[in-house]
Design a protein that fits this description.
The protein is of the alpha+beta class. It has helices at 29-39, 84-94, 140-143, 160-179, 228-240; strands at residues 12-19, 59-60, 74-80, 99-102, 105-115, 123-127, 134-136, 151-153, 194-207, 210-223, 253-255.
Length: 259
Amino acid sequence: MQPRWEGWKISRLILTLESAGDYAYDLRYHAKLQGFVYSLLRGTAYEHLHDARGYKYFCFSNIYSPFDIGEGDTRYVAISSPDNELIRTFAESLLEREVVNLGNMRFYLREIRIARPKVKHSVALVTRTPIIVRIPKRSYAKYGIRSEHAYVYWRPNIAFEAFLRQLEDNLIKKYKHFLGADVEEERYLPLFQQFVFRKQVCNHLLIKNREVKVFASLWEFHFSHLTREQRELLQFGLDAGFGERNSLGFGFMEVKVGR
């Protein structure tokens, strides 16, 4: 039997999970969720992504709502990708699952919904998970940054312009690599028009068996009168994730309802 999304263009899966027990919400869910996502690729044409360097072209949300979980409670996780075949591979693997294990948390997989949120001429995008942006040393003088490190994480004491320019640069680089072709950057820029900074967060990630402190931030972005090229670039970002460490679940974006 063919899945109900056969032939559809999809970029997002929303999983409905029913908790099998009582659990405290784990703020370090990233690695456990990433491990689950990679497990869906075992034995598929995308299995190599686990050990591949560079961009992975998928992102995922947190376990929402982010509160302690009681037995029988419903929670949701979303996975997105601009690669239609990759998101289909995730979907087909999920069809074979009845249980989702995330660390010590066990859930029953009750439903898989598909979606393809669209970027229109005017749109508002909000962060479901924080965005990571690093400022490289070559840009320190431009933004008045003093540091001996090769890069610094953007924080509110650094100019907002630094965040926006690095975010644009990261998005265009990923887009070029995904297309496998160069693009005329001036046709996409300036991209970010209006924004609302929500707050800074600090996460402790386990990277290469070492705990690393990572600074990230939550935002709301408003766009209007977008050109076709800008819509295509933002659509890619909506599906692939904004900023860095998307395959660890950072920079997962949603279209704001009501816009």
